[in-house]
Amino acid sequence: MGEHIAAVGETGSGKTTFCRNILQMRSFAVVLGTKSRDEDLYPALEALGFVRRDTWHPWEYEQTRERYVIFAPPLDVPDDATERELLSAEEEQAGKFRTALIQVNKSGGWCVYADEIATITNDMGLKRTMNLLYREARSKSLTLIGSTQRPREVPLNIFQQAKWFILWQISDRDDRYRAAQYAGPLMPVVDYTCAQLPRFEFVCLHKPTQEIVRSRVGG
């Protein structure tokens, strides 16, 4: 617990499948469902026993079998919503995520997965809340899995606090450099490898020991 994971890869690389497999290893896991629909993630999770909820009551989940949760408060706006109504609905949705994250931090023991962490930190403005989780995670036995396609757009904490880097092909030079610079002495190896990895292949780096292996999703 408390060994955070940073997963970086382009669409279709296999990072969602990889992270989904990691979630099954934990006793309590919550997926931050920032999308109203995600055919690549939600149905597969529900097939594994995840339940979708739009309210957060961790004390109830911890006493029942609902140990695997997709927390997905909806963005409730009518089709003819004004800009003010849309902004108000977005703030309300972000507030629900903020409350859930604070309660997760308070209860401890959960594995939190953000499929695109920039949506939480940037679009919803919850960077401060996520930084709180990263700072206090070890004492609360929390594990944070932050996934992203664009490393340049996410907070530094996702890389600074992560003990495990899972990196697929990163075509954009600046994004690749941003991810590789946190690999320490292995930065040149990571930078070179992630420029040419075949689809579904990744490198796994354990930062504390600087051990690195190359593998692929599904084999």
Describe the structure.
Helices cover 39% and strands 19% of the residues. The chain is of the alpha/beta class. The model has no long low-confidence stretch (mean pLDDT 88). Helix 4 (83-107) runs parallel beside helix 6 (127-140) and helix 8 (173-180) packs antiparallel against helix 9. The chain has one domain (5-216): P-loop containing nucleotide triphosphate hydrolases (Rossmann fold). The protein has helices spanning 15-23, 42-47, 58-61, 83-107, 117-123, 127-140, 157-160, 173-180, 187-194, and strands at residues 5-8, 29-32, 51-53, 68-71, 111-114, 143-148, 164-167, 201-206, 211-216. Strands 3-4-2-5-6-1-7-8-9 form a nine-stranded mixed β-sheet, with helices on both faces. The protein contains nine helices and nine strands.
Overall structural class, as computed from helix and strand content, comes to: alpha/beta
Categorize the overall geometry. globular
Describe the largest sheet: 9 strands, mixed
* CATH class group: Alpha Beta
Mean residue pLDDT: 88
Order of helices and strands: EHEHEHEHEHHEHEHHEE
- The amount of beta strand, in percent, is 15-25%
* Count of discrete domains: 1
In helices, the fraction of residues equals: 25-40%
The largest beta-sheet arranges its strands as 3-4-2-5-6-1-7-8-9
> What distance separates the N and C termini?
25 Å
Helix segment count? Answer: 9
Based on CA atoms alone, the radius of gyration comes out at 17 Å
CATH architecture: 3-Layer(aba) Sandwich
Low-confidence stretches: none
